[in-house]
Every structure is written in structure tokens, then in C-alpha cells.
């Protein structure tokens, strides 16, 4: 394990991120989005980086979370804690079902199944417009309240989301460092050998799906409350693509790489959209560069720079000053 991937370092980096974002960003909305997508991308990383499953179904769970927040708060006035719980439970249940069907195939067929499920849920959301609002989405999703005060301010809601981020990130660290997490890595490296040893490979994959879906749905609910709307686009397969791109950019070898990937993507998109209306072209060029030259993601680059700095420091210390 790399020194930067130890539990203490990862938790310190997560805390530092929460503290630094308000200092370097003027937009509380953007800072909050980074933390929300950092959770979602870390959940995707549990599938891609630790289990070796390239899923295009993450947008399903994200969209379901937004609709849970939209329906329960705008139509039934359900308390926010219960809304969050419902989003987590529904995300886990649907992810279990999607995972159970999808893992019956491997490779490109697994990818196609998750993409097919993503399209199916999108058209279901579009068809049942009485529930989802159709193209218009569900408007007027309220922010949560604490001590009788609504978290209308961008930085007050940022603090609220930051607590969720720190808890979820810590829980994922525990999961990935546990026997369960090590077994997922064994399945990723050699599924046949893991099955021959006696591990219930399919069960472990489904459990990874359930955890990832629960966290992603929670992120979707938090995002709906952030922007005040549960849009149809949230369950579109493009959302799955965006989450995967963030995961790959950050690097799938470390959970904190998910934070780096989410932050880099969102800040870059926000900056380029101001510079040029066709900013997606510039973003595409940046992504191509990352894919060609940083195959372990941006976090892999950070690790190489760290190792190089430590090696140079050790060499200079060993040689000592010239006499």
C-alpha cells in the first residue's frame, strides 16, 4: 500500500478538502457539488477500482435519489432524515436487482446490460411523468432545516453536505480495508481463483453493487436539495458517463482519487464554460490527454511526484553536504 493511501492520510486529506474548498472557491454551490460528486464517484470506484466492474448504471441510482427527494419533500412533506433513509434503501434495493441481472454476464456484455438498464430507467422516468414531472422534472425541492432554520445559504448547506461526505468517505475506507474489501480486490485480480478458493463471487459483487447504489442515491437526494429540482437529466445515461469519467480521471487505485477526479472535472467544466460556449470540445481534449499520459489518473500522478520528491530528499540526505 502506498503511503498516501493509508487510512490516516486519506482521512486527513478528506478533512483538508472540506476546509480548503471554501477558501479557494467563491461559489458555495460548486464547492457543495464537488463534495456530493466525490461521494458518488467514490461509490463508483468501489465497483470499478476494487471489483473491476465497469458499470454504466450509476445514473440510475443517482436519478432515483433525486426523485425520492423530490417526491417525498414536495408532495408528502416527509422529514428530511426519513427522505435520506428512503433514498439509501431504494438505491440499495434497485442496485441489488440491477447487479443480480448484470453480473450474470462478463466483459462487454456486462457493460451493455448496465447501459440497457440505464436506458430503461430513463424511459420509465420519462413515461411516468405524473410522478417524475417528465421533461420539467420536480420543481421546488426544499433544503433541509436545522434547529428551525432552513439551510438556504450556499455555505450553510455546504457544511451540511460536508458532514455526509466525511461520514461516507470514512465508511468506504473501512469497507475497502476490511476482509470484504480485500476479497473484492482478489475478485478483480483473478475471479476464477477467488471462486476456486471458495469465495461466493456473485454475492460479493451484488453486495458491492448494493453499497455503491445506496451511496449514489444519497448523493442524488443531496444534489436535488442543492439545486432545488429533480431533473429528468439526472437519471439519463449521460450521468453515468460523467460519473465514470470522473472516476477514471481521478484514478481508481485510491478512494481519495475519486475526490480529485470530481473536483478536477467540475472546476474545469465551470471554468471552460465561461471561456467558450463550446467548452465540451476543450474538456474532451483534456480528457484525451489524461487518458493518454496519466493512465493511473491524476492521483497516480500525485503518487509519482510524491515518490520522486521523497527519493530526491533521501538521496541528498544520504550524500550529505560537500566538505
- CATH class identity: Mainly Alpha
Q: What is the terminal-to-terminal distance?
A: 39 Å
Number of strands: 4
Largest beta sheet: strand ordering? 1-4
Mean pLDDT: 93
Unreliable stretches, pLDDT < 50, 5 or more residues? none
Helix content: over 70%
CATH architecture: Orthogonal Bundle
CATH topology: ABC transporter involved in vitamin B12 uptake, BtuC
Largest sheet: 2 strands, antiparallel
Order of helices and strands: HHHHHHEEEHHHHEHHHH
In DSSP terms (H or I, runs of 4 or more residues), the helix count works out at 14
Radius of gyration based on Cα positions: 20 Å
Total discrete domains: 1
Q: Could you say which structural class the secondary elements and strand pairing correspond to?
A: mainly alpha
What is the 3D shape? globular
Percent of sequence in beta strands: under 5%
Transmembrane segments: 12-40, 47-70, 82-101, 108-128, 157-175, 208-230, 242-267, 279-299
Protein name: Branched-chain amino acid ABC transporter permease
Main location: membrane
Organism: Thioclava arctica
